[in-house]
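can u do me a favor
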């Protein structure tokens, strides 16, 4: 069949599976158009099984890297090295909140001051599909938020945005991403960092330290448990890496004298 030949031809060029799927999707869209226009009657895709999307393990920080990011971006350290940078408390609070809760960058940008329960240790988050959830938040993040809010002009109202930009408007989620990127550069990270990698780090570190998958699902706001299961693969990969380095017959031990 011509379609199978095309897929085999593209595959022979050693492209990634996701690139192959994009090309197949373009052909499928064109065929759907031909069917709509009654140029052809049958969909040849009904006769083949297209390859599935490649699942990539998410990037994440080690616990040591998370500590390094916090240390290099401590507001006092930032002011010593960079002068009177007035957003140091805000940036630090953003990182601590993301790492403490695992919330998405859009969810963090959408928070108001009243969404933070400083006494109960929760933040009220509006996630995908307008689903509301309560995310636990740790003391370090709450303290960072308090320090940041203490730099804000009074009075503070519950309906005010939690994070402000330099114009005193709500900080957009892309602005939040730029802040995390800047913090990673300040900490001399070898690779770029984004808020989603912090979310991945949150989930991975919870599982590494014994948290159950169902609880991680609820904290991340995943509708389906299958979405959360990718983090078990990350943890297993790390477990295998430790095994290879430490077991007498692990892969990394082979060949040593």
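np, heres the sequence
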């Amino acid at each position: 069949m011509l379609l199978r030949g095309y897929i085999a031809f593209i595959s022979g060029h050693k492209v990634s599976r996701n690139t192959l799927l994009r090309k197949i999707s373009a052909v499928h869209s064109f065929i759907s158009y031909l069917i709509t226009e009654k140029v052809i009657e049958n969909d040849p895709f009904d006769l083949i099984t297209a390859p599935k999307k490649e699942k990539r393990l998410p990037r994440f920080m080690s616990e040591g890297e998370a500590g390094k990011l916090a240390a290099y971006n401590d507001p006092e350290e930032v002011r010593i090295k960079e002068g009177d940078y007035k957003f140091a408390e805000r940036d630090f609070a953003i990182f601590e909140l993301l790492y403490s809760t695992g919330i998405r960058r859009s969810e963090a940008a959408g928070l108001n001051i009243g969404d933070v329960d400083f006494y109960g240790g929760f933040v009220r988050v509006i996630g995908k599909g307008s689903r509301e959830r309560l995310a636990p938040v740790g003391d370090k993040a709450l303290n960072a938020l308090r320090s940041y809010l203490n730099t804000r002009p009074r009075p503070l109202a519950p309906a005010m945005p939690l994070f402000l930009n330099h114009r005193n408007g709500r900080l957009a989620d892309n602005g939040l991403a730029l802040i995390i990127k800047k913090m990673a550069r300040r900490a001399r990270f070898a690779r770029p960092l984004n808020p989603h990698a912090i979310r991945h780090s949150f989930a991975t570190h919870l599982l590494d330290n014994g948290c159950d998958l169902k609880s991680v699902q609820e904290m991340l706001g995943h509708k389906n448990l299958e979405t959360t299961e990718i983090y078990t693969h990350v943890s297993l990969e790390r477990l295998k890496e430790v095994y290879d380095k430490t077991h007498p017959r692990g892969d990394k031990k082979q060949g040593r004298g």
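The chain has two domains: 2-47, 63-237. hope that helps!!
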